Amino acid sequence: MADPKKLFIKTYGCQMNVYDSERMAETLGGEGYVQTDRAEDADMILLNTCHIREKAAEKVYSELGRFKPLKTAKPDLKIGVAGCVAQAEGAEIMRRQPMVDLVVGPQAYHRLPDLTAKAGTGAKALDTDFPEEDKFDHLMARPKAKRGPTAFLTVQEGCDKFCAFCVVPYTRGAEVSRPAARVLTEARDLVERGVREITLLGQNVNAYHGHAKGLAGLIWDLAEIDGLERIRFTTSHPNDMDDALIAAHGDCAKLMPYLHLPVQSGSDRILKAMNRKHSAESYLRLIERIRAARPDILLSGDFIVGFPGETDQDFADTMALVEAVQYGQAYSFKYSARPGTPAAEKEDVPAEIADARLQELQALLTRQQRAIQDAKVGTEAQVLFEKPGRLPGQMVGKSEHLHAVHVEAPNAARGDLVRVRIEESAANSLRGTLIHAA
Ligand code: SAH
Ligand code: SF4
Ligand code: F3S
Question: Which of 199, 221, 256 is the last residue of a domain?
Answer without folding.
Answer: 256
